[in-house]
Amino acid sequence: MKCRKFLALLMTGALLSAPALALDDDYRQPIKVTSDNSSADIQSYTLIYSGNVRIVQGSMEIKADELKVISSAEKGNEVMIATGKPATYTQMMENGLPAEAQAKEIRYEVRTRQLTLSGDAQLSQAGSLMRGNTISYNVEKQQLIAEGKEDEQITTIFLPADLDTENQSETEPKPEPEAEPKP
Question: Which NCBIfam families match (predicted)?
Fold first, then answer.
C-alpha cells in the first residue's frame, strides 16, 4: 500500500542522520492506522485520517491530529502530510535508545524521497538534538538542511561520545524558552 511505502521511508529518512539505525524488523511489520475519522476523495486521489491519528509499525509510532495522503494515477508520486500540535514520531534504534522527531507538519514526498519537518521542528536521539523552524532531509542523497525563522537561528546540541548512555535521561537537553535572535 502507498501508505506503507511512505511510513517506512519517512521513518528511515527522519533518522538516517542519527548515529544509530532503526530496528530492521520494524519495516517488515504490518502498519496499523487508527483515527477517530477517515474520508476519501477518489477523484482527487486523497485520503484523510483525522482525530487522534496513530500510526504504528513495529517500534515506530507517529501521532498526529491529521494525516493526509495525496496520490496520483502514477505510482510513486504520493505525498504524505501529518499535522498536529505537534505531530510526533518515535522509533527504537538498534542501540536501544529511542529517536524522536516533532513538528507542526511532517511531510514526505515519495518520488523525491524528501522528508520535511516544518514549524517548530525538532529531531533528537541519544541526547543529541537539532531544533529549527524547518528540517529537511533527502533520504536518497542523505543530505540534511535546517533553517531557522527570520529572526531565529537553528540550535544543534551534540553530547560527547563518551557519555554513559545509562545517564542519557539526566543529560537530555531541556527545551529552550526562546530561540536566539540572529545577529
Answer: outer_YhbN_LptA (TIGR03002)
Alpha helices by DSSP H, 16-155: none
DSSP string, 109-148: ETTTTEEEEEEEEEEEETTEEEEEEEEEEETTTTEEEEE-
130 close to 122: Cβ distance less than 8 angstroms:
yes
Instruction: Work out the number of other CB atoms within 10 angstroms of the CB of residue 59.
Output: 17
Q: Are 71 and 2 in contact (CB under 8 A)?
A: yes
Contact 66, 53 (CB under 8 A): yes
> What is the rounded CA–CA span in Å between residue 19 and residue 114?
20
Rounded Cα gap, residues 156 and 27, in angstroms = 29
Contacts of residue 24, defined as CB under 8 A and 6 or more positions apart, other chains included, come to: 94
Q: Which domains does the chain have, with CATH numbers?
A: 2-171 (2.60.450.10)
pLDDT at 108: 82
Q: Are 87 and 118 in contact (CB under 8 A)?
A: no
Where the chain has pLDDT below 50, the residues are 1-20, 164, 166-167, 169-171, 177
Residue-wise pLDDT for 153-163, tens only, equals 999 998 877 66
Q: Which amino acid would we find at residue 135?
A: I
pLDDT of residue 2: 44
pLDDT value of position 62: 85
